[in-house]
Task: inverse folding
């Protein structure tokens, strides 16, 4: 199995994630056009419950597996690698049975009394089969990531989205005559199918690349894995805590939003529609650049774990600085484009220009969201998952409290919930950064911050001018595309001019490194 460098592994995941994001947005556009905001609202109401159950089932093991496998591989300890996998699968499969059953049993209660919309029952039930599929798939991904081989993970992501987008129009259209709730369930069926085909590929890739037979002496390894279980839980439980906090916050978010808007005097159907606009249209647009930061985070955990195992502290600082700089660069262009072109983008994508008000409020602060992933990955790699969990807990409590306090005000309504979302991710990012600084004495260079401010300010002015003066056709799509492309070219050129990307980094990129390296000093 070929081991990849931090940048190469991250680049492979970024390319795959970019493809899946594009396909995912096509999928979202199709769903939005077929079901409308109300159907998307029902769809999004079911997602937090699914994420909560999946978090409980996986128990944070993928991150723990990635870290322990990376450490074991650094010491050429193949026996430990197998024991980590065996123990992880044993725990995950047991939890899958328990939580899948609970999800089915409590779906009517969650839909009717917590989400305040009985129609949410249908997408909740339709998504249930995905739990065991994703649980097993995540274990295998953790193994490959620990081996610093990101290719199987990348390919599986693309496969999942291709299957989903192939089926979503068929399933939603087929069920729509029965009602919008059945159409939402149909969209969930396409998600399950995509994950299932992706799992089949992951199993095949594991069989092709493995250095041992997993089923051989499975019970012996499971019974003799007490220390391995302890090591896994030491990392997994705090990691689960962080994800569980996030999942619980997402689970309660539509509930608190619905109840708060009801207090503000809004009807249930309108509340569902507005939540669909915020959670189903606006926030996914803001989350678009996170495919880069998530890819960096996945590659960062084994890279930092390996460096920590060898006590290479300079490498840890270098990798973190590198990851944060790339996160700032990838997120910066998104902040500018979404703020300046908000109305055009949401009109073209969703035919919902009123969603622009959410985007304009969220975009300037979203840079904090893009930094959050790499910071949390470093905390997990340095055995500081407990600190990350406490930061997430504090942020989630403040966010939910802010949603109730702000969204229940009639003059704010759904915009109050939007403000609360901003408060949540800014607070958690700042807490993560403070923890990293306190632990390893890390600081961001003033020169880097100054260059980023110059880059963002100049690009904002350029994009504003492009938006105002480019009017060469009667096509909104053509004019907006030209303006955004020119903005991106300006941003990339200024990035190289300010030397925010160096030649050494560019040369390490597969395929394009040698070509781009000629233009970078």
Result:
């Amino acid at each position: 199995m070929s081991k990849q460098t931090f940048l190469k592994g991250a680049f492979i995941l970024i390319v795959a994630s970019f493809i899946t994001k594009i396909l995912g947005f096509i999928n979202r556009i199709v769903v939005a056009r077929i079901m409308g905001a109300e159907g998307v609202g029902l769809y999004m109401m079911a997602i937090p419950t699914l994420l909560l159950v999946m978090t409980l089932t996986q128990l944070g093991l993928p991150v723990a597996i990635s870290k322990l496998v990376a450490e074991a591989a650094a010491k050429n300890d193949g026996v430990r690698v197998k024991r980590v996998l065996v123990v992880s699968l044993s725990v995950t499969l047991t939890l899958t049975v328990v939580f899948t059953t609970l999800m089915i049993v409590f779906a009517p209660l969650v839909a009717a009394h917590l989400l305040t919309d009985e129609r949410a029952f249908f997408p909740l039930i339709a998504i249930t089969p995905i739990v065991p599929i994703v649980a097993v798939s995540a274990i295998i991904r953790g193994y490959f990531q620990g081996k610093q081989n990101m290719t199987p993970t990348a390919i599986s992501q693309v496969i999942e989205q291709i299957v989903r987008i192939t089926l979503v129009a068929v399933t939603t259209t087929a069920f729509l005559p029965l009602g919008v709730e059945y159409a939402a369930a149909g969209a969930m069926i396409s998600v399950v199918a995509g994950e299932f085909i992706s799992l089949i590929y992951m199993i095949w890739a594991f069989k092709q690349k493995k250095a041992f037979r997993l089923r051989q002496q499975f019970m012996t390894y499971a019974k003799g894995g007490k220390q391995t279980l302890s090591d896994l839980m030491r990392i997994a439980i705090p990691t689960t805590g962080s994800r569980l906090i996030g999942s619980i916050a997402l689970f309660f978010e539509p509930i608190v939003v619905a109840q708060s808007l009801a207090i503000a005097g809004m009807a249930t159907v309108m509340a569902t529609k507005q939540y669909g606009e915020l959670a189903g249209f606006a926030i996914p647009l803001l989350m678009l650049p996170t495919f880069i930061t998530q890819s960096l985070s996945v590659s960062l955990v084994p890279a930092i774990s390996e460096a920590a195992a060898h006590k290479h502290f300079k490498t840890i600082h270098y990798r973190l600085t590198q990851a944060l700089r790339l996160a700032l660069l990838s997120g910066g262009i998104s902040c500018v484009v979404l703020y300046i072109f908000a109305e055009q983008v949401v009109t073209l994508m969703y035919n919902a220009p009123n969603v622009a008000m959410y985007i304009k409020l969220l975009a300037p602060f979203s840079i904090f969201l893009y930094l959050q992933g790499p910071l949390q990955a470093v905390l997990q790699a340095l055995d500081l998952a407990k600190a990350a969990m406490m930061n997430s807990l504090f942020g989630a409590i403040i966010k939910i409290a802010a949603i109730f306090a702000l969204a229940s005000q009639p003059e704010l309504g759904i915009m109050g919930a939007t403000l609360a979302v901003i408060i949540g991710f800014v607070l958690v990012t700042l807490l993560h950064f403070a923890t990293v600084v306190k632990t390893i004495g890390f600081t961001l260079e003033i020169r880097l911050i100054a260059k980023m401010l110059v880059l963002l300010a100049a690009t904002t002015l350029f994009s504003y001018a492009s938006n105002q003066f480019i009017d060469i056709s009667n096509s909104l799509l053509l004019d907006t595309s030209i303006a955004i492309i020119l903005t991106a070219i300006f941003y990339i050129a200024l990035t190289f001019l300010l030397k925010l990307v160096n030649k050494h980094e560019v040369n390490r990129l597969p395929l394009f490194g040698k070509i781009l390296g000629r233009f970078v000093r």
